[in-house]
Amino acid sequence: MPMSSSSSGSGMMSSSYKDGTYTASSSYYVPHGQESIQVTLTLKNGVVTDSSVTNSETNYESASYQEGFAQEYKSYVVGKNIKDVQLSYVAGASDTTNGFNDAVNSIMSQAQS
Amino acid sequence: MTRLRVTFEAIGTRWTIEMEAAPEDEHLLRERIARRIEAFDALYSRFRDDSFVRQFETPGEYPMPRDGLSLIEFYEALYKATQGKVTPLVGSLMNEIGYDPAYSLKAGHPTAPPKWEEALVYTPTTITVKQPIVLDVGAAGKGYLVDLIAELLRENHITDFTINAGGDLRHHSTKNEPIRIGLENPLNTEQVIGVATLYNESLCASSGARRKWGAYTHIIDPHTLESPSTIVATWVIADDAMVADGLATALFFTPASQLQKQFNFKYAVLSANQQLDYSADFPAEVYTA
Q: I want to staple B166 with a disulfide (CB 3.0 to 4.6 A). Which of B13, B44, B115, B121 is the partner?
């Protein structure tokens, strides 16, 4: 943060900052991606009279995060085609056998008839 | 020693077992694995008229199967941790919504299954059924069978293997060789939303993607009588496949933070809006927009 404040009480230090509201932003990387932080300060007579900090991580509503349990991450995910990824196996919905697949096909065709 | 790959269908899904074994042992191993699976299926399957648990339609006292105590104890812990949302008594409801032994997939009139305390009491040697019940151990049973097959392989001196029972995996390695597991996108099964690294642990996935008909999937809430729709897939890593499997189902109903009070595991939960919630220690590269 480029800002600092100084006391105007003694009058010995004259502020070189104009009164007003100043904002600085920065972004940084964490394991799951990028976060950002924004700081807003209000200066009057060289004294910080108001400040606020917004951190994108405060958008997380995870109960576990708030309750101080083991940390959790959230990300919006997209799919990549399996043939483009080097894998040993895929884990997802259990493969069905022909018996089940036949049953689904049967009810689908009944629904369409 | 060579890399053997054994594939077969069992308990309603496709299995692949890759292992370091002597080629001349393949036939014997296949036979032993098949027998172990058949013994399990004959005890616990909801889909066979002749299974041990089908008898529970008639109240009475039954002997505890030798491998039954671990399974029922885990189910009891899961039942309590999920406030009854994961229950082995869900079989009656599954039949009613159409996921019955004939796979009729015709939804009838769904009703809530009985509470555990009203239906089941067990000791290490007995199971007492107090009212007619339909037992379904799909939530953790496949994972438990994976653990039992892993035990069988170790008894046969196989130290390096991966069991993959339709996406429930257990990995054992004496070399420093982890495996890469794609996390299947439930909305497009030709894709993965990330890749997890597995080493000497179990990973189980749960998703309604392949067993879906009308408004239902095979995952059903015994209190609301509906299939969950906000969460679309879960993945859990734990030492035992039984635990990973049961918790993968539990995460559809109960937050991870709640389950973490009772169980030690790593997890990822995918919501319908494509948001993935995952523990800081879930060992995966996740694909983000």
A: B13
